[in-house]
Structure to design on (247 residues):
């Protein structure tokens, strides 16, 4: 955990010295896709989470993104009639740090020309890779099935790799960028919910977050180019001398 925070801080320091950088917050709802949540969307298993992120725009259409996310996830067999007799439940805290690239389909060039600012609205796609720290707690009912010994002896918290894939849409202002973002994160193991051999050990766990993002643009911004005077329109040389009374 300490190493993840150190790496995030180092990335933020690096991008903080560059231009075209955003730092921001994300908050929203979470869904888990694993052994105890068979449906794609289980409203009763909704959790909440949030995170920090930084973007470095190295071109109008592409940027690098570093993010640190925290979420609470849960699920239970008792919500599903066909699995109620098994009687497993879990609560899991998932913390991940990811690095990835974003493709801004319409571009995020905040400059229309030297003295005119253009707000931008663009959808974007995201793909990355990262590390996940999972801390899961499993519970069973007295009448339910016993857990597999390997699941019982699994130690937490545990660290593993994840692959986040996302899409979103955002609106860029002078200093602030607001948006809506959804991320589907593929876990590369089946123990993010603490259960594997006791249920379906052939499929890895996934989780989804959907939320609102608010970012602040640091470094040089378009506002530094906006003046109160009307932009100068340069005249042909002959017209310039004629207006000044010179021949």
């Amino acid at each position: 955990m300490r190493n993840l925070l150190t790496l995030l801080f180092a990335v933020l320091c690096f991008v903080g010295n560059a231009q075209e950088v955003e730092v921001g917050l994300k908050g929203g709802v979470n869904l888990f896709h694993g052994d105890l949540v068979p449906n794609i969307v289980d409203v009763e298993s909704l959790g909440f989470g949030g995170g920090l992120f930084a973007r470095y725009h190295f071109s109008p259409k592409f940027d690098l993104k570093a993010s640190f996310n925290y979420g609470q996830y849960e699920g239970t067999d008792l919500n599903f009639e066909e699995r109620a007799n098994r009687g497993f439940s879990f609560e899991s805290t998932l913390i991940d740090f990811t690095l990835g690239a974003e493709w801004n389909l319409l571009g995020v060039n905040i400059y229309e020309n030297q003295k005119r600012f253009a707000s931008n609205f663009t959808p974007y796609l995201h793909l990355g890779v990262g590390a996940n720290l999972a801390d899961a707690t499993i519970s069973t009912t007295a009448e339910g099935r016993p857990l597999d010994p390997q699941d019982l002896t699994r130690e937490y918290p545990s660290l593993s790799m994840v692959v986040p894939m996302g899409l979103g849409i955002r609106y860029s202002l002078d200093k602030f960028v607001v948006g809506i973002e959804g991320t589907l994160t593929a876990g590369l193991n089946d123990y993010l919910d603490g259960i594997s051999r006791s249920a379906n050990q052939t499929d890895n766990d996934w989780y989804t977050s959907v939320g609102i993002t608010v970012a602040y643009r640091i470094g040089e911004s378009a506002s530094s180019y906006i003046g109160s005077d009307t932009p100068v329109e340069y005249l042909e040389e002959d017209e310039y001398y004629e207006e000044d009374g010179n021949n």
The chain has one domain: 2-243. The chain has a mean pLDDT of 81. The longest strand covers residues 120-140.
